[in-house]
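@channel anyone free to eyeball this complex?
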Amino acid sequence: MIRVGIVGATGYGARELLRLVLAHPEAEPVAMVSESAAGQQVSDVLPAFRGLVELSLESFDAASLAQRCDVVIVGVPGTKSAPFVRDLHETGVRVLDLGPDFRLKDPALFRQYYKVDHPAPELLSDAVYGMAPFHREAIADARIVAVPGCYPLSVIVPVAPLLDAVETDIPVVVDAVSGVSGAGRSLSEGFHFPEMNEDLRAYKLAVHQHTPEIEQALGNRALVQFTPHVAPLTRGILTTITFRPRQSFDVASAFRRYESEPFVRVLGAGRPAEVRYVRGSNFCDLGWVWDERTGNLIVVSAIDNLMGGTSGMAVQCMNIMFGLDESTGLLAGGMAP
Amino acid sequence: MIRVGIVGATGYGARELLRLVLAHPEAEPVAMVSESAAGQQVSDVLPAFRGLVELSLESFDAASLAQRCDVVIVGVPGTKSAPFVRDLHETGVRVLDLGPDFRLKDPALFRQYYKVDHPAPELLSDAVYGMAPFHREAIADARIVAVPGCYPLSVIVPVAPLLDAVETDIPVVVDAVSGVSGAGRSLSEGFHFPEMNEDLRAYKLAVHQHTPEIEQALGNRALVQFTPHVAPLTRGILTTITFRPRQSFDVASAFRRYESEPFVRVLGAGRPAEVRYVRGSNFCDLGWVWDERTGNLIVVSAIDNLMGGTSGMAVQCMNIMFGLDESTGLLAGGMAP
Amino acid sequence: MIRVGIVGATGYGARELLRLVLAHPEAEPVAMVSESAAGQQVSDVLPAFRGLVELSLESFDAASLAQRCDVVIVGVPGTKSAPFVRDLHETGVRVLDLGPDFRLKDPALFRQYYKVDHPAPELLSDAVYGMAPFHREAIADARIVAVPGCYPLSVIVPVAPLLDAVETDIPVVVDAVSGVSGAGRSLSEGFHFPEMNEDLRAYKLAVHQHTPEIEQALGNRALVQFTPHVAPLTRGILTTITFRPRQSFDVASAFRRYESEPFVRVLGAGRPAEVRYVRGSNFCDLGWVWDERTGNLIVVSAIDNLMGGTSGMAVQCMNIMFGLDESTGLLAGGMAP
Amino acid sequence: MIRVGIVGATGYGARELLRLVLAHPEAEPVAMVSESAAGQQVSDVLPAFRGLVELSLESFDAASLAQRCDVVIVGVPGTKSAPFVRDLHETGVRVLDLGPDFRLKDPALFRQYYKVDHPAPELLSDAVYGMAPFHREAIADARIVAVPGCYPLSVIVPVAPLLDAVETDIPVVVDAVSGVSGAGRSLSEGFHFPEMNEDLRAYKLAVHQHTPEIEQALGNRALVQFTPHVAPLTRGILTTITFRPRQSFDVASAFRRYESEPFVRVLGAGRPAEVRYVRGSNFCDLGWVWDERTGNLIVVSAIDNLMGGTSGMAVQCMNIMFGLDESTGLLAGGMAP
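replying in thread with the prediction:
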């Protein structure tokens, strides 16, 4: 059994991770850290887990966690995880970071998009980007894995195989719509139920921090116009990607590289993805239409932002790190309904 | 009082129209036609209107309607309204058509996108496109007004003033997200509540019938890549429009043409529109961001698809046709919540 | 034109009231008070009203309001309105209070349920309970009208005509389900969208402050077991009332007293009410089933909690106070969809 | 590995069952029957399972299923499962029926509530009611298990331990609110998204077929006034149970019988259950308030209607039948969010 520690245990990413670890046949939660709720029972703070978890929430103590855990997964808000990761890394325990602090390789970009200096730039080169379909060998040996963001996954998976057809200097237009759980559990007027229900909005136009993460993962071979939106549902991201390929090519062939990927489902031409078929699963679905009239290729992908995009990918990385079958504990189909 | 007849009275567009006419100080419903429910009381078929409407639903009889009505508004599904409109037109009564049959001027495009021959091509030149901000003089005298579609309005209003900056042969990317009422009241598996709730999907990529309507209204000066989506809300459309202007220009100045438009609200730079502030109102809100990094301009608009996009615009046209203040009966603010 | 002042202008009740006053042919908003946002434009704080209201939010000044307004409507949270009402009342201006401070006649009950001493018990006898179907003569002359709560309206209207059949000492079971706007705009974890969406819960069992309001309005002739619930919708209350009548009687006859009520719709036996047909309207719909097997009568009522239950009733009272037709400005049918 | 056959594979209950069986470490789906879609790939008809299931849908053949399966689970609409169950039973294979056909022991009640004669009354005495907390020994040996309905489970679990306090001839008031998946996948106007979203309604007052199932399971020691409601969410049931106990007693003690139940969570006094903490789990949560003013006890329970109430309970019964730990494959915590 892999002994798993979770830091930032009350956040949405960590909750979903706990749900997955509890159902995982080869892993178990052994320590849960929450600075704000230390001392309380997990089952009191997170009633969904009553009857399943006997642990108390504890304060952060890297040495103690290292002694009891085979891996520690950190799920705290952006710009806050680096100190935890550094302290844990120094003990030698392996670390998965659900947050963005170790995804960007360039500290200048981090500063530009996150508005603070990177707290541990010396570790950036050690961290492996946890996008399993592209980096599984590096993940297997990694000491620090930076789990991809939810939006980036929904863009990188569909675009990476098509890069040869992308004009480098013409923006690829990415309009993504997310469920509200992606915004986390912090209260704000815009996510108060009567405001968000029956609403649709776009936000952070031109400045969203996932833009450089996507471009970096695509080898800076695409200029990405990323516009995130939020819609009144809890889970899921639907991403619509539009660009005019520089030459004709066989899209289905380009996606054949995913044939043996356990969690990428290539639906085919004329079959855009839908959130309902991936909700509650670790899948990234994708399909496309090539519009002959305009010359544009439109690819539509769907993920469950808490599963495929964050916690599910973290478990997939953990499976790789510990030599398990990658899909262990992740075989749930989509919930529809 | 303007005596209003409504044909296709049980559809969603007609229901909203009835709601508006009932609250209108200078109009009243005098005849409601429904072939499927003729003979029944309006208040039995549409319980929302119990206590407000004493009419019975009746079969279609153009001559009888013409005698009793000052204007007849037709709200039946696409490709079905033309025969009603023709028969009414022949009696001399003025007609507003909520459907698409008289929007496209080119019968070949109608055939391409609607898959049937146009039932009354001889009337196409008589019909005026009921987009009040651009055609109010023609609407004032029109015998047949083709009320714009909901998606088209959300694209035409924000794009029309910017056309000088649009490269004619590079597609403008339009990703629009609609509430489900836009799909009408016909039952289908995809709109069954447990399937649609918590879902997001794109549909009719590259073939949506509103594409030529938008391009025609923009004088065929833009190539539009229109991708409609549906999200789990009842009312509202949020439309995100992305293109790279061919030169720098002052966006706010371009939108100054709407300064005295009663139902276009230009929110400004950095202020993308939201559905919550237009729900239940006749407004089209719009705001924008110019991304210096990519060179793209992104404009986001919002409407209530049943109000601003269909029935509200129909009432606005009716007000123009009968010499009333354009905003009569349409002064409701957005419902938030 | 009735000149209307609104105190507490940013709350949900006041927003809805503003929406109604703007559409009202004989009333207009002339002053809007918000302590927290004084000095700002209404249209900046409440973007839904941009283009419709030119006012700035102002600080509270009773004398100034009295000079400019024919009536002032106070919409601030419970236990906070009494000082405003008192100051306004002293100027002689007529006051409508959307909150609960002047509904209970017994200050001891107020203290028991609201946990504070009543701030102005000397005014309780002057205040008229603004339940139009029962108190329209008193409302016509009232200086202070305490507008009923949303839940109470949904119970009092269906139960009042049946009181002769109610056993005084056996609790009438009232299970009511509300949309989330009823909880107001204060942020809390439970109303954060990802928590509330797809959730159902009961709350304040046995201690909800609307219990004594309902019992008082029913002349203390019924013992009410009121259990409120919240469901993931924005507007609407559905109330299910169950009791075993002490004798057989003709329910339809008992409800005949509402025949000429403009906003009570008696649907009949076997026709329980639904929220969709009253949303956006001022109606209270009701229907019932008498279960011969158990001897129970079950009455189901539906209202839009922001309209029928609060702001709509306030406008109805205002119409009565100023000698207008009661339904002026309130003729909208339900929104379905 | 338990080889599982599923009949009625495209219904909502069967889909959820398939999801659970796929994630179950000791069971696997080996045959899936759908008369309407026989011959098609499961992954084409149910895209949520693409990549996880290689089976084709097949026509019903009892003998063939019996040869390949250790257990067959039937999930077809009420009144339709009996012929399938009978044919399967005759082959000797063990059968779990998700539907209601074998729950009521009295064929006269079946006829009264389901409006048809029972198709196989001779098997009623063989069928065991699959309510694990009460019948696990009988389930272990059963050849036919009638899995409880979703509403009944949410009532029986909270009420059964309290029966000594229930007055037999005074109705216990049960107001239950369900998500829409409980209504199945058949299309109807009332469950069309724009009609159901933002709606609340009660239905089948006094005649719902779960009434006799509940009363039978409670040994006919309670008269149940069951009023079901539907709210705009996909999954979940919240049930509010109100009655006046005939004597004072210790509620917590009465519920101590569930201390070692794996899927009943007794939250305690003052802690009514919520759907968000059971969604996606097999738990039935319950809590209560005793109102001293009225003498009423109010118990509130919550389940995921597709899990705790139907498919999860079926898997729990299967685990019992095959000698596994009861919670195998069912250890997921609630999804919140």
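from a first look: Chain D touches chain C through 51 residues (CB under 8 Å).
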